[in-house]
Amino acid sequence: MKRLDDLDLTFTTLEVDAEGIATLTLNRPDKRNALNAATVDELIDIFTAVPRAGVRAVVLKAAGTHFCAGLDLVEHHQEDRRPEEFMHVCLRWHEAFNKMEYGGVPVIAALKGAVVGGGLELASSAHIRVADATTYFALPEGQRGLFTGGGATIRVADLVGKARMIDMMLTGRVYQGEEAIALGLAQYLVEDSEAKAYELARAAISNPPLSNFAICSAISHLQNMSAMDAAYMESVVAGIVNTQPASRGRLAAFADKSAARVRPNE
Ligand code: 1HE
C-alpha cells in the first residue's frame, strides 16, 4: 500500500492539515471533473491509504463551478469499450466508492453546481453531503443512452427511493434547493458548502476515532444484512466501541455533571 505522500495524483489533490482533516479536491475543472478511468484509480489509491494514514476526516470538494459531471463520456466514446471492459470500469468505480463508504473515516462532500450521473454516485458514497444554492442533482444516463454503473441503483435508490430514482432516470428530472434536501440528496443547504463541510469535519473529529470508524463502516455493513444478523453484529460492534478506553473520560464527565447536555437548537 502506498503512503499518502507517495501517491501519484494528476486529476485530484490531497492535503492533510495538522488536525488530520484531509482535503481531497477533484481537480479537472476544465472537464467539469468528469470521472475518467485515471481519476477513479486515484480515488482507489487515496481511499486505500486514508484509513491507515491517521486521517480523521475527509472533505471532498471540487475545483471549478461544478462538483462532478459523472462518467467521462468523451473517454467512453473514444475507448469504444466492449461489455466486459465496461464491466471492469464499473468494478473499479465500486472499489473506489466502497472504500469511501466502508473505510471508517468520515467523508464529507462539499457540493456545488452539477452533481450528476456518476457525480451523484460519487457524492452518495460520502457520509455527509452539503449543498449550496448552485447545487443540482440529476441522473442523465437515460438521455445519454446509458445506465448507472457506479452504485446508484444501491446508494441513490437508498437516498431517494426506487420510484424517484426511476423518474430521474426516465425523464431527466433535476432536483435542487430545499426539495433536494427534503428528499435526502444532501443533508445541508448552505451559502458556503466548503466552509460548512469543514465545520462538520471538525465536529466529527472531536469524537473518538473508533466511534467514527463504527459510524462510517458498521452502519453501511449492517444495512446489507438481515435484521437478525444486523442486530447481532450491532451488539458485537457496540461491545467493542462502547467499552473503549477513549469513552471512559466522557462517561465520567457525564456522571459528574461536567459534560455538556443535549439541548434543542436555539
Ligand atoms: C465532459 C463531461 C463528461 C463536461 N464527460 N467531458 N454525465 C452527463 O451526462 C453530464 C454531461 N455534462 C454536462 O451536462 C455539462 O457539461 C455540465 C452541466 C456538467 C457543465 O456544463 P457547462 O456548460 O459548464 O460545460 P460544457 O461546455 O458542457 O463542458 C465543458 C467541458 O467539459 C467540455 O470539454 P471541452 O474540451 O469541449 O471544453 C465538455 O466536453 C467537458 N465535459 N461533462 C466528458 N461527463 C459508471 S456509469 C456512470 C454513467 C454516467 O455518469 S452518465 C452521466 C454523464
Please give a handful of descriptors for the protein shown.
single chain; 266 residues; alpha/beta; 2-enoyl-CoA Hydratase, Chain A, domain 1; Lyase 2-enoyl-coa Hydratase, Chain  A, domain 2; 6-stranded mixed β-sheet; 3-stranded mixed β-sheet; 12 helices; 9 strands; binds 3-methylmercaptopropionate-CoA (MMPA-CoA)
Write a concise synopsis of the structure shown:
By secondary structure, the protein is of the alpha/beta class.
Structure notes:
With 266 residues, the protein is an alpha/beta fold. It folds into two domains: 4-204, 2-enoyl-CoA Hydratase, Chain A, domain 1 (Alpha-Beta Complex), CATH 3.90.226; 209-255, Lyase 2-enoyl-coa Hydratase, Chain  A, domain 2 (Orthogonal Bundle), CATH 1.10.12.10. The protein is 48% helix and 13% strand. It is built from twelve helices and nine strands. The protein has helices spanning 37-49, 73-79, 83-102, 118-123, 141-144, 152-160, 162-171, 177-183, 193-204, 209-223, 227-241, 245-255; strands spanning 12-16, 21-26, 57-62, 107-110, 114-116, 128-131, 136-138, 175-176, 188-189. A six-stranded mixed beta sheet has the order 1-2-3-4-6-9, sandwiched between helices. The chain has a three-stranded mixed beta sheet with strand order 5-7-8. Helix 1 links the parallel strand 2 and strand 3. The protein is globular, with a radius of gyration of 19 Å. The mean pLDDT is 97. It binds 3-methylmercaptopropionate-CoA (MMPA-CoA). 3-methylmercaptopropionate-CoA (MMPA-CoA) binds next to helix 2, helix 3, strand 5 and helix 5.
